[in-house]
Design brief:
Shape: globular
CATH topology of the largest domain: Rossmann fold
Number of domains: 3
Helix content: 25-40%
Largest sheet: 7 strands, mixed
CATH superfamily of the largest domain: HAD superfamily/HAD-like
Structural class: alpha/beta
Strand order of the largest sheet: 1-7-6-5-2-3-4
CATH class of the largest domain: Alpha Beta
Radius of gyration: 25 Å
C-alpha cells in the first residue's frame, strides 16, 4: 500500500487521541485489534473513541479505551449543524491525533473542523486532502478480511502490531444480569443452550428462511438437555417472533430484550450460535462461542467469524457476493442452505471434544510468578545464565508460600527469542540457573513456562500463550493438580494484572523491576488495578496469606 504523509510528530508527543470508530456492531468489534495496536503504540496517550451510542456496550470495559464520546447522528449531531456542534465538542478536548477507522468523508471532515492537527486514515471517498497521513489501500487489502483491513492501516503507518484477536470485555454486572434473565425464563445451568439469530440489521437479503430456523430448533430440541434461545436487536423483534411462533417446543425469545453487554454474556453461555452474517456472529466469536454462520450475499472471506471452531455454510451462485440489502431475484443463495446441513454443522460443534477444564477443584492452589523483575533482577533481555541474580528476600517469600501449600509456577514472556536476541536453548539455560539458585536457598519451583513469540507481528501473532493471554496458565492447570479458584498472580507488569483479571484471580503488582513505572502509568492512564501493590515479592507473599484469611480460607497448609 502507498502511504503519503510528512512526519510532523513523534509518538511521545501525542497525548490525546480521538478514534472514529465503525458504525455497526460487527464492524466495531473487528476494529478492536487495531485499537489494541494503537494502545501499544501510544501507551502514554489518553484514547477516546467516537461511536454511535448504541455501540457503547462493546467498549464499556475495553482496556484500550479511556473514554467513549457518543456520536448522536440521528439526534443532536444530525445534519451540517450537528456535525459543526460535534466538531466544537471535539475541539474542546484538544486532541493531538485523529485516527480514522471509519472510511466516511464526514469522519475526516469533522476531525478537520475540530482542528485536530494530525489526521490519519485511508484515503478513500475523496477525503485524502483532509488527512495529514494518507494510506491508499491496494486491491489486496480491500479484499482481505475486515479485521485485516483495519490492521492494514496500523501496519502501513508503522505502528506496533497487536494480536489478531477480538477484544470484548464485559463487566461482572452484565454476567449477573444474564444469569437472572435465564433463570427467569426457567433455564437451568445444566442446559446446553443453542442460540439462534434469525435477523440481520443490514437487510433481508442476508437472512435465512424463518421456516429453516424453526425446523432446526425443533430437531435440536429432541434432546431434552438442549434449549433453544432466540436472539436479536430491537429491529429483529417481529422476525424473531415469527420464528418463535413456528417452533413447536418451548424456545426462549430474548430478541430486543438485552443490552449489548448482556447479549455478550448470554452468548458466552451458549454452546453454539446459528446466525446470519450479522453483529451477533462477531459478538459470539469474541466471547469464544463457536458459530454456525450462514452466508449468501456477503463473502465469508471478508466478514466471516474470527477464531477457531466455527462452521461456515455458503453456496455462492453466479451473482455472489452481491452485497445487496434486498435480493432482486429469488434469494437462491440462502434458499440453497438446507436444514440438514445446518443441523449437521451444529452437531459437529456440539459434539466436538471439549477443551479440558483448566480449573479442576483440588487442594493445590498456585502462585503464578513473573520472572524478570519479580524473582530475579531486571536485566533487559536476559539471555545469559551468569546474569541471573535473585532479588533480596525472594527465597524467603517463596519458601513461605511453599510451606503454606502453594505450588510455585513461573509464567513469562520471552519475546527476545522471536526478536533474535537469544535462542530458546539460552532461555532454558537461564531458567535452569534460576532454579539452581533457588534450590540452594531451599526452594523448588513446580513449573516454568514461557512464550517465545513476538508481541507485535509475525507468524505467531495469534499465539495463545503470550501474557495477558491465559494459554500458559491453562496449560499448567492441565499438567499440574491446581485449584485455580484460590490461586494468585504476582508480577511487575500490567500484563500480569490483566492475566489475573482474565482468569478471575487475585493479583499483586510488585514495585521491583518495572513495577514502579507500571504502577505510575496505571494511576495516570488507567488500566486494570492490582488487588495489592507490594514493595517486593516478600511483601506480596505476606499479603497473599492475609488475603486468604480475610476471604475465609485457612492459611495453614492446603
Amino acid at each position: 500500500m502507498k502511504v503519503s504523509y510528512k512526519r510532523t510528530c513523534e509518538p511521545k508527543d501525542i497525548k490525546r487521541i480521538m478514534v472514529r470508530g465503525a458504525n455497526w456492531v460487527g464492524d466495531a468489534l473487528l476494529t478492536t485489534p487495531a485499537l489494541a495496536s494503537l494502545r501499544r503504540s501510544f501507551p502514554q496517550a489518553y484514547i477516546v473513541l467516537l461511536i454511535r451510542p448504541e455501540l457503547n456496550g462493546l467498549f464499556i470495559a475495553n482496556p484500550h479505551i479511556d473514554e467513549v464520546i457518543p456520536y448522536r447522528k440521528e439526534g443532536y449531531h444530525q445534519g451540517l449543524l450537528g456535525m459543526w456542534r460535534l466538531a466544537q465538542e471535539l475541539k474542546r478536548h484538544q486532541f493531538d491525533l485523529a485516527f480514522l477507522l471509519q472510511n466516511a468523508f464526514e469522519a475526516a471532515w469533522i476531525a478537520f473542523l475540530a482542528e485536530i492537527p494530525h489526521r490519519w486514515g485511508y484515503a478513500v471517498q475523496g477525503r485524502g486532502l483532509l488527512l495529514t497521513a494518507r494510506v491508499h489501500p491496494d486491491q489486496k487489502i480491500r479484499h482481505s478480511h475486515q479485521v485485516d483491513y483495519y490492521l492494514g492501516l496500523v501496519q502501513a503507518l508503522g505502528l506496533e502490531f497487536a494480536e489478531r484477536r477480538l477484544v470484548l470485555e464485559i463487566p461482572r454486572e452484565a454476567e449477573e444480569a444474564a444469569e437472572r434473565l435465564l433463570q427467569a425464563e426457567g433455564l437451568d445451568t445444566g442446559d446446553a443452550l443453542v442460540g439462534l439469530n434469525p435477523g440481520s440489521s443490514y437487510g433481508p437479503a442476508k437472512r435465512w428462511m424463518p421456516e429453516g430456523f424453526a425446523t432446526l430448533a425443533n430437531q435440536l430440541a429432541r434432546d431434552g438437555h438442549r434449549r433453544v434461545v432466540i436472539f436479536g436487536s430491537r429491529r429483529d423483534i417481529s422476525g424473531a417472533a415469527q420464528v418463535a411462533s413456528l417452533i413447536q417446543v418451548g424456545a426462549v425469545n430474548l430478541a430486543g430484550r438485552t443490552s449489548l453487554e448482556v447479549l455478550a454474556a448470554l452468548l458466552k453461555r451458549c454452546r453454539a450460535l446459528v446466525t446470519n452474517d450479522t453483529g451477533a456472529m462477531h459478538v459470539a466469536a469474541a466471547m469464544g462461542t463457536p458459530v454456525v454462520a450462514l452466508f449468501g450475499p456477503t463473502d465469508p472471506q471478508t466478514t466471516g467469524p474470527l477464531g477457531e471452531g466455527h462452521q461456515i455454510i455458503y453456496h455462492p451462485i453466479a451473482c455472489s457476493p452481491c452485497l445487496l440489502r434486498e435480493c432482486p431475484t429469488d434469494h437462491e443463495c440462502m434458499k440453497a442452505i438446507s436444514v440438514e446441513e445446518v443441523l449437521a454443522a451444529v452437531e459437529k460443534v456440539l459434539n466436538r471434544p471439549q477443551t479440558p477444564d483448566p480449573r479442576p477443584q483440588t487442594n493445590r492452589p498456585a502462585v503464578f510468578l513473573d520472572r524478570d523483575g519479580t524473582i530475579n533482577e531486571e536485566m533487559g533481555y536476559l539471555g545469559h545464565p551468569e546474569q541471573v541474580k535473585l532479588i533480596p528476600n525472594v527465597a524467603a517469600a517463596l519458601k513461605t508460600l511453599k510451606e503454606k501449600g502453594f505450588l510455585l509456577i513461573v509464567i513469562s514472556n520471552q519475546s527476545g527469542v522471536a526478536r533474535g536476541y537469544f535462542s530458546e536453548a539460552e532461555v532454558e539455560a537461564v531458567n535452569k540457573r534460576l532454579m539452581e539458585l533457588l534450590r540452594e536457598e531451599g526452594v523448588t519451583l513446580d513449573g516454568v513456562y514461557y512464550c517465545p513469540h513476538h508481541p507485535f507481528y509475525g507468524d505467531r501473532m495469534d499465539c495463545d500463550c503470550r501474557k495477558p493471554k491465559p494459554g500458559l496458565v491453562e496449560r499448567a492447570a492441565i499438567e499440574l493438580p491446581l485449584d485455580l479458584d484460590h490461586s494468585y498472580v504476582v508480577g511487575d507488569h500490567g500484563v500480569d494484572i490483566e492475566l489475573a483479571r482474565k482468569l478471575g484471580l487475585r493479583s499483586a503488582l510488585v514495585l521491583t523491576g518495572h513495577g514502579q513505572g507500571e504502577w505510575e502509568r496505571t494511576r495516570i492512564q488507567g488500566g486494570p488495578d492490582p488487588d495489592y501493590v507490594a514493595q517486593d515479592l516478600y511483601s506480596a507473599a505476606q499479603w497473599i496469606l492475609r488475603d486468604l484469611r480475610q476471604r475465609g480460607r485457612d492459611s495453614g497448609s492446603f
